[in-house]
Amino acid sequence: MARVSVEYKDHIAHITLTRGDKMNALDDAMIKAILSAGQEVAASDARAVVLSGEGKSFCAGLDMASFATLAQKDPSEWLMSRSHEDANEMQEVALIWRRVPVPVICAIQGVAYGGGLQIALGADIRIAHPESKLAVMEMKWGLIPDMGGMALLPKLVRSDVLRLLTYTARPIGAQQAADWGLVTKLSDDPLTEALALAENIANQSPSAIRAAKRLIDVAEAQSRADVLLAESAEQVELIGKPDQMEVITAQMQGRTPEFK
Predict the structure, then answer these.
(1) For residue 56, what is the DSSP state?
(2) Residue 259, in any domain of the structure
(3) Are 122 and 91 in contact (CB under 8 A)?
(4) Cβ-contact 8, 44 below 8 angstroms
């Protein structure tokens, strides 16, 4: 059965986890389908991405059958391999959304636990239903977050919050998650709000949006000198180019810009 659907409309890619009857729990087929969807969208001309899960929950994490299967294998064989640049396959399920060159907005309802939370953390922006719950769940099974969580969490939450979430595996409500920085904002209809935000982004200069995502990645990881140089280099490629000129013309004419 299909695990993920990808639809395009008005320059927006909508990626949906489609294992709703299992709370979109991750099995091998879904992991591979998520990676395939991310790679497809990264190569497309989409200007924004909405990531969501069908049914009652966004994603409940790794399903127990898959966990049992993995437990029978030598962990060093599938964990230590760098199959996707700096990541293994499981880590890439979350990190691929950072590699997608346009903004990714994740809509969360129900639960985002364990691997499901780490997938959501890979998005640029997370919009959650007020009744949703999130958890760094791995300690419940005697494990640690290993799907990119430790590359993403320290940029979002304070050290003490990171430690509390990791040590206890305790689910937290959406409001607490927002207060701590795991969630960008709350909405009674996160998917509709995510699509509206994606539409807003898709109406901005496509080249400037992609440049902004690249620049933010540099700003979060590189030295001040590298960031300042990257600012200048990205701006050189925008000033006076067709997308920027269309923005200026549309502003002066009081209309919505139209990008080729």
Answers:
(1) T
(2) no
(3) no
(4) yes
Of 162, 187, 202, the last residue of a domain is: 202
Regarding whether 124 and 57 lie in a shared domain, the answer is yes
Q: Is residue 258 part of a domain?
A: no
pLDDT at residue 84, as a whole number: 83
Q: How many domains does the chain have?
A: 2
136 CB contacts (<8 Å, ≥6 apart)?
114, 117, 145, 149, 153, 165, 166, 169
- Rounded to the nearest 5 degrees, what angle is found at the Cα of 135, between the Cα atoms of 134 and 141? 150
Task: Identify the CA nearest to 105 among candidates 175, 5, 192, 170.
Answer: 192
Query: How high is the pLDDT of residue 65?
Result: 77
pLDDT bucket at 207, cuts 50 / 70 / 90: very high
Same domain for 197 and 217, yes or no, is: no
DSSP line for 165-228: HHHH---EEHHHHHHHTS-SEE-SSHHHHHHHHHHHHHTS-HHHHHHHHHHHHHHHHS-HHHHH
Whether the per-residue pLDDT at 1 is higher than 70: the answer is no
Answer yes or no: do 212 and 108 share one domain. Answer: no
Whether 68 shows a pLDDT value over 70: the answer reads: no
Q: How far apart are CA 112 and CA 182, in angstroms?
A: 11
For residue 55, give every residue at least 6 positions away whose Cβ sits within 8 Å of its Cβ, in sequence order, or none. 20, 21, 23, 24, 110
Give how far the C-alpha of residue 134 lies from the chain's centroid of Cα atoms, to the nearest Å: 15
Find the domain containing 37 and state its range.
Answer: 4-202
181 CB-near residues (< 8 Å, 6+ apart):
156, 157, 158, 161
Q: For the purposes of burial, counting CB atoms within 10 Å of the CB of 32, is it exposed (0-12), middle (13-18) or buried (19 or more)?
A: middle
